[in-house]
Amino acid sequence: MIEQRTRLLALLTERSFARRKVTLASGKESDFYVDCKQTTLHPEGLLLASELFVDALARVKQRGVRIDAVAGPTLGADPIISGVAVVSQLRGLPLPAIIVRKEPKGHGTGAYLEGIDKLGKGLHVAVFEDVVTTGGSMLKAVDRLQEGGFIVEHCFALVDRSEGGREAIEARGLSLTSLFQRADFP
């Protein structure tokens, strides 16, 4: 696991981390950017992230916590939850994935949640995100899932920028496990 984590951090640093001025989704300005999609859309990066997340889920479940499915806000979490679903199946602990739209589907069902048609209400869902800054998009996904009848207690992020997101998520009574923190990058 340590070797996987080290390799994933190297990929994130090489493919996703940039030291430059940017305006984040939260509206905040920053002197660095982490575009995790550059890593999670890479075959090795997605495999490593998925394996490490399934390991983290297993540790949470060993404490007696129930997790029946994984979900996350589109677009950043889409590859992650897909990868986690595949690795969980390969390990004999299948977890279906749910995509949480930012806006309701413009046609058909008009739904915010994709992948729930055959899932029962009341399932315990872990929410994933690629990068957490303020926690806003993750908490919107939590709200959509709860409105859809699902129970959310645990959140997972590939990178926590350490800019208040953890505190906002924990203030809602949720836990946040992140594979990496801002301090892990140069």
H/I helix tally: 6
Rg, Cα atoms, Å:
16 Å
The main β sheet shows up as: 6 strands, mixed
Distance between the termini: 22 Å
Helix and strand element order = HEEEEHHEHEEEHEHE
Strand order of the largest sheet: 7-6-5-8-9-10
Q: Give the averaged pLDDT, no decimals.
A: 95
What is the approximate shape?
Answer: globular
Instruction: List low-pLDDT spans.
Output: none
Strand content: 15-25%
Shape-level CATH architecture: 3-Layer(aba) Sandwich
**What count of structural domains?**
1
Count every beta strand, where a strand is a DSSP E run of 2 or more residues: 10
Considering DSSP H and I runs of 4 or more, what fraction of the residues is helical? 25-40%
CATH class: Alpha Beta
Indicate the structural class: alpha/beta
CATH topology type: Rossmann fold
Any overview of this molecule?
- The chain is of the alpha/beta class and 186 residues long.
- The protein has a single domain, classed as Rossmann fold, CATH 3.40.50.2020.
- The strands form three sheets. Strands 7-6-5-8-9-10 form a six-stranded mixed β-sheet, with helices on both faces. Strands 1-4 form a two-stranded antiparallel sheet.
- Helix 3 packs across helix 4.
Task: Describe the SSE topology.
Blueprint: H1 2-16, E1 17-18, E2 22-23, E3 29-30, E4 33-34, H2 37-40, H3 43-62, E5 69-73, H4 78-90, E6 97-100, E7 113-114, E8 124-132, H5 136-147, E9 151-160, H6 165-171, E10 175-181
Parallel strand pairs: 5-6, 5-8, 8-9, 9-10
Antiparallel strand pairs: 1-4, 2-3, 6-7
Helix pairs in contact: 1-3, 3-4
